[in-house]
Amino acid sequence: MRVKYLIICLAFLLAGFAGSNAQNVSFYAGYSKALYDSRFYPALFGEDVAPAFVTLDVKLGWADYGQSPYASICKHPEVGIGFQFDGLAGVKAANGPGIGNIYSLYGYFDRQFLTAGGFSLGYSGEFGLGFMFNRRYDPVTNPWNVLISMPVNAHISLGVQAQYALSSRYDLGIGLFFNHHSNGAVTFPNFGLNAFEIAMRVGMRSPRSGEDLQVEPEDDGFRRGFKFAFQMSGGIMGNDASYQKNIAENGTWVKDRYFKYSFEVNAFYRYCRTQASGLGFDLFFTPFYNKIAESDGLGETYDPVSCGISILHELSYRDFSLMVGVGRYLHHNDGLERNKILYQLVTLKYYFPKAADMYLGIVLKAHRFRAAESIQLCIGKRF
Fold first, then answer.
1. How far apart are CA 62 and CA 79, in angstroms?
2. Would you kindly state where each structural domain of the chain is located, as residue ranges?
3. For 107-138, what is each residue's pLDDT tens digit?
4. Residues 305, 286: Cα–Cα separation, whole Å
5. Cβ atoms within 10 Å, residue 132
6. pTM over 0.90
7. 11, 138, 180, 261: which could form a disulfide with 285 (CB 3.0–4.6 Å)?
8. DSSP summary character for residue 216
9. How far apart are the C-alpha atoms of 14 and 224, rounded to whole Å?
10. How would you label 178-189 residue by residue, b for 16+ Cβ within 10 Å and e otherwise?
11. CA distance 263 to 230
């Protein structure tokens, strides 16, 4: 409990410090509805039941009015930090205490793509960490919370929002968001929490921001053309088959974790500063494939190597980029996700132009567009 209050106090101290310097401060009050999952919701909450809960946010941001071409191309986007509260403590399982509150700290990117008078329409993305301090999964005291089994999880949110400026300093708005929390299969169980949120916004802008100052964008030498990248990534993940076996046979929770690696070669055509599309060849290595075979009891022989090709799209802002991809397996028999043809990739990267365009990032691989297979750290180089 002390850690819980420390995180909350840290968030408010951060808000107080940053708020004194931030150009924009916004508050959100939302209503969230979990996305129904027929795999486990009937046993957890009841047939055709998906929980609803309250969500609260505070965001502290800085609008980009610099000389970078990205500032004018992206219509002076806002970047900043945020704190989110998901009020899940009131959500009860059918046979037990259910789920605890989630407290998230994250970075965000907001961009308006349509403006007309005082009205604006834009999209946003958030990436950070969610903390759950109680009611996590436990095979004895809380076996019903198969959504969250770690105190620290990934927080990811994508949304669209409309705003209307009441004055030069205040605005009101409404947004629709898709929120996701999971541990990226580091520990099982890991069904994760997916929810749609509708939220009302109140925004305040500092009178001392320089948003009305028009500057001449600098020329960064951008040219259209093909780019290539080689990337290596690695991380740790749990063994779902081992978890299921131990629960069924012994009622115990064994947190066995293993290394997993990936290699990618990508080719992009960069047709503007912020957009690029291309293809990738992906190689996935699962060293613990024999452990999966020992645990699942199916009597099958698995392979350590899987490969596939993917369609990719990269969104860039300064030295940050978000790459999303949908791939098709050419060979896949590692036992992790049996009989799956498609996979999804989401990669958040930061480039170092002065270091020969090397980059660092985080890669999330998923199946069924919602079930995380693994989360890994990556290093790569763009040519």
1. 6
2. 2-205, 225-382
3. 999 999 898 989 999 999 999 999 998 888 88
4. 6
5. 26
6. no
7. 261
8. P
9. 41
10. ebbbbbbbbbbb
11. 8
